[in-house]
Structure formats: C-alpha cells, structure tokens
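Re: that backbone. Tokens:
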C-alpha cells in the first residue's frame, strides 16, 4: 500500500509539472505551429482527465471498503489541473492572436447566446480558468469555505464542455462520460443520504 501511495504522489507531481509546462509552451505552439498541434487529441485528453476527476469521488463513496479507490482522490487535483491547462492554453492562444477582439467579444450578446451552444462552451472555459487559478493551497487558505464551493464549478466545466462537444460534434465518448458520471454521482448521493437518515 505504501508503494501505491508513493506512485499516486509521483503521478500527481508529474501531472502538475506537465500542466505547468503545457501552459508555458502550448499557447505559443498553437499560435506558431497550428498544423503540428493535434487539437482533437488535446480535447480528448482534457475531457478524459476531467471524466476521471468526476468519477473518483462517487466511486470512493460507493466503494469505501476498496483500499485502492480512496487514495485516488489525491489525484483529482493533478488530473483537474491537467484538463484545465489544456483548455486555458487554447484560450491564451486566442488572446495572443487577437487580444482586443477576444476580450471585447465578452461584452457582446452573441458571445453569450445559445446559438451554436456558445454559452455552454464559454461557461465551461470560464470555469476552467477559475478552477485552474484556484487549484493551490494559497487559494484554499485565503478563500476558506468558499474554496470548496468554487470547486463545484467542476460540474459546470464538465457538463458545459460535454454538452457543447456532444451537440456540436456528436462525440459519443463524451456522452458516455456524462452518463457514467451522472449515474455514479446520483448513486453516491442516494447512498450518502440513506446513511445520514439511518444515523440520525
């Protein structure tokens, strides 16, 4: 078990290091060498790592006796930062290409409309930025109980980006991710509620 914990901590450190490296290099790569950047692969990695973030907690709640599941909760930070780093890198690339145009679009109704599901995509983007910026111990200390509330934006990030991808690109894998997360989260909620009723 000690080796397992060590492996999880190493994986966490590696994911955080890769995320920082991506934030430092990927936006420039997207701008300067767009033909060499595999957007589909990056979005797949972002959604898959976010999916893993979203299923770990309900799995840990549903299988409290399974020793190897609970420690995976530690990896949620690394996987979440990795996912958000990819999305934020694309946002930074847009800002590099046309900073005035990109930022001025925020004030337009078209940016926030449901035409082409733009609203879902942009809510997911903003959530990714907020989650990435606050995924550190300093933010946790400064924000106190508000930090945990802000982390619930992971649902906005997950479902906003997921629905956008499913409806815009008919991506069945992301649809499967959403179904699995929804079912597991509801099951965990029901089990937790029943336990609270029994103990009260």
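Recovered sequence:
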């Amino acid at each position: 078990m000690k080796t397992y914990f060590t492996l999880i901590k190493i994986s966490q450190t590696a994911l955080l290091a890769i995320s920082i490296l991506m934030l430092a290099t990927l936006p420039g790569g997207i701008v300067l060498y767009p033909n060499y950047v595999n957007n589909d692969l990056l979005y797949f990695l972002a959604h898959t790592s976010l999916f893993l973030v979203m299923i770990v907690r309900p799995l840990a709640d549903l299988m409290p006796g399974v020793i190897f599941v609970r420690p995976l909760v530690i990896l949620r930070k690394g996987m979440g930062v990795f996912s958000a780093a990819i999305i934020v890198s694309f946002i930074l690339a847009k800002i590099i290409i046309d900073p005035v145009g990109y930022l001025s679009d925020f004030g337009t109704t078209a940016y926030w409309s449901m035409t082409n599901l733009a609203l879902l995509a942009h809510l997911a983007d903003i959530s990714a930025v907020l989650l990435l910026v606050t995924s550190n111990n300093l933010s946790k200390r400064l924000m106190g109980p508000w930090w945990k509330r802000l982390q619930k934006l992971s649902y906005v990030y997950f479902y906003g980006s997921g629905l956008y991808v499913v409806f815009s690109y008919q991506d069945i894998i992301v649809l499967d991710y959403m179904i699995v997360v929804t079912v597991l989260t509801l099951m965990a909620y029901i089990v937790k509620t029943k336990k609270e009723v029994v103990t009260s």
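The chain has one domain: 2-199. The chain has nine helices and no strands.
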